[in-house]
Design a protein that fits this description.
This protein has eleven helices and ten strands. It is of the alpha/beta class. The protein is globular. The structure holds zinc ion. The site of zinc ion (ZN) has 6 residues, from loops. Zinc ion binds next to loops.
Length: 333
């Protein structure tokens, strides 16, 4: 390939309340938010780097008056908005078809109303999904789904999360498969097409893990490594990207709010791994990682990536296996 490979970049706009909800902290019902302060910081950091990315927005947040201006500015400043569900529950695989349809449409309408852009892509909270969810997305003519994380490390991540995220964390049945099962590791790392049993198809762009060993390399993992050694973290990123190029996999790189905010700016989330790093240091690491991504790849939004994939050769097809929820330790989102 003479052209540089693409690399899509997305940020899951997980709010303070949604982290508390996944953790089982009942104070989430007060819906505490950091979006009005976090999003301008993220937008400025991306503008300095000259990047346009996809923000997966939670529908509820789009109904909140105090978020309206900053959510509108995502689209005004050239970014894409995707659908990250309405209520941010990491157990979409337990939802009925009616519940899924309502969840998708409510979020879609709320996001479109505030940003002026109707989402064309979806990512399930905590990487949760089901075949029924894919059918709902396909019937609503979504361009892509981005809910899967092909890694064998999900169960280890869950054990780590429950061991480190503090006492009192809720272990309700919904959280039994939090961060996924070993089956997730069997799915492809690159893009493919879901062949749904109802005859529909849907493009899947997984959160990319390293081809072969399927170790995650999204930014939260890099932060985890950077606490020991920045050279190790960036060496790991460069290696992962080189392996992707060798394997012909165009990466899709995942970001989270806590990648840019330290415990100094989100004290309520101090229990999360990596929150001991100050915000200024995180932002320096963030800039460096995104600069590395752009060394050999052309960074694009998810829908730009999806359209380019669609315009190329026919994709490998895959029938959905039984889905479960997931997320990752330094992610848990
Ligand atoms: Zn999320």
């Amino acid at each position: 390939m003479s052209e540089r490979p693409l690399c899509s970049i997305s940020l899951d706009v997980d709010d303070l309340w949604s982290y508390m909800k996944i953790r089982g902290d009942q104070r989430w019902v007060e819906r505490p938010s950091y979006l009005p302060t976090f999003l301008p910081v993220a937008l400025d950091a991306l503008e300095e780097l000259g990047l346009r990315i996809t923000f997966f927005v939670v529908g509820y947040d789009a109904t909140v008056e105090s978020n309206a201006q900053v959510l509108e500015s995502l689209v005004a400043r050239g970014h894409e908005v995707g659908n990250h569900s309405f209520e941010h529950e990491s157990w979409l695989h337990l939802y009925s078809r009616d519940q899924l349809t309502e969840e998708i449409i409510k979020a879609e309408n709320a996001i479109a109303a505030v940003t002026g852009q109707r989402p064309r892509g979806f990512r399930g909270p905590g990487y949760s999904w089901s075949e029924t969810l894919l059918e709902v997305l396909a019937s609503r003519e979504y361009l892509y789904d981005a809910s899967t994380l092909p890694t064998y490390l999900g169960p280890l991540a869950r054990a780590y999360y429950f061991a480190t995220a503090g006492k009192g964390i809720s272990k309700t049945p919904e959280r039994k498969t939090l961060f996924g099962t070993f089956r997730d590791g069997l799915r492809p790392v690159g893009a493919y097409e879901w062949a749904l049993r109802n005859g529909q198809t849907l493009l899947e762009i997984p959160v990319t893990t390293m081809p072969g060993i399927k170790a995650p390399f999204h930014f939260s993992y890099l932060l985890f490594l950077a606490r020991r050694s920045e050279a190790l973290a960036f060496g790991y990123l460069r290696t992962a990207l080189a392996v992707c190029r060798a394997a012909g996999v165009e990466p899709s790189f995942l970001l989270h709010p806590l990648d840019l905010m330290g415990g100094d700016e989100a004290p309520a989330l101090a229990f999360f791994p990596g929150m001991d790093l100050p915000s200024t240091r995180k932002r320096g690491l963030f800039r460096k990682a995104l600069e590395i991504l752009a060394e050999h790849h052309t960074p694009v939004t998810m829908s730009a990536h999806a359209s380019a994939i669609r315009a190329r050769a026919r994709l490998a097809r895959r029938v959905p296996d039984a889905a479960t929820a997931a997320a990752s330790p330094a992610t848990a989102r």
